[in-house]
Structure to design on (252 residues):
């Protein structure tokens, strides 16, 4: 475990990811395996969120992004979606003081305009309450999709061109990056999906271009410190080459 080798170079702060993203999968299957309604799994998953935040703070991770509700999740049964929205409002109200006391800044990324006005107000209030926090940045991706993110960035770039603030020839990768959500944060270093599935499901397609992917069989409600540190162990054991050869990366 990472915690057992904190003094080794492999476990140094420099070797750890700056930005971790997690697809929190398996809530429904966790509940069904226990003969309980799917929503019970979503409630149980809140504890795993707290644990992930705690572990990231412990290791000095700069940002944690959690995929809470995708733009495709609206297709789920109406009752499940309604219960998820109610849970989201409850968690925002209940957890924000704890986040603030632990110096965690909350940001909700995604098209929040699709949510009720009440939920939008709670989001704005929670973000404002933690705006001055200087520790971990906790991004909650809600009504978010990677394609949506790139689309809204393209629209904003097009608007800049239309208004004469930007020339077509100036558009490059950095230009697009500036208009994406989370533009103020490092790109994702480690992308974890829990629950045993092996896909990224339209999540942070641009920001995770060079992320290390780890697929954990653990269902999200059971994803504890041991499970997350196992993912960090795997990350620390990989060589990140960014298009170079192993020899180039290893060269002094």
């Amino acid at each position: 475990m990472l915690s057992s080798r904190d003094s080794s170079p492999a476990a140094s702060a420099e070797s750890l990811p700056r930005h971790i993203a997690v697809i929190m999968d398996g809530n429904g299957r966790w509940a069904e395996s226990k003969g309980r309604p799917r929503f019970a799994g979503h409630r149980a998953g809140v504890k795993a969120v707290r644990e992930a935040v705690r572990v990231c703070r412990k290791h000095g991770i700069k940002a944690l992004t959690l995929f809470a509700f995708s733009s495709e999740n609206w297709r789920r049964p109406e009752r499940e979606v309604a219960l998820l929205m109610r849970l989201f409002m409850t968690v925002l109200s209940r957890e924000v003081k704890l986040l603030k006391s632990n110096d965690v800044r909350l940001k909700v990324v995604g098209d929040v305009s699709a949510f009720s006005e009440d939920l939008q107000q709670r989001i704005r209030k929670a973000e404002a309450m933690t705006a001055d926090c200087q520790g971990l940045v906790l991004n909650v991706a809600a009504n978010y999709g990677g394609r949506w993110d790139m689309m809204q960035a393209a629209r904003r770039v097009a608007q800049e061109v239309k208004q004469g603030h930007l020339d077509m020839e100036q558009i490059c990768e950095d230009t697009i990056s500036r208009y994406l959500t989370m533009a103020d944060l490092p790109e994702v270093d480690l992308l974890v999906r829990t629950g045993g599935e092996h896909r990224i499901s339209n999540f942070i397609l641009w920001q995770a271009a060079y992320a290390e992917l780890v697929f954990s069989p653990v269902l999200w409600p059971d994803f504890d410190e041991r499970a997350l540190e196992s993912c960090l162990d795997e990350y620390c054991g990989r060589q990140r080459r960014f298009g170079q050869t192993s020899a180039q990366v290893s060269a002094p």
Remarks:
- The CA atoms of residues 106 and 138 lie 5 Å apart.
- Confidence is low (pLDDT under 50) at residues 1-10.
- The longest strand covers residues 63-70.
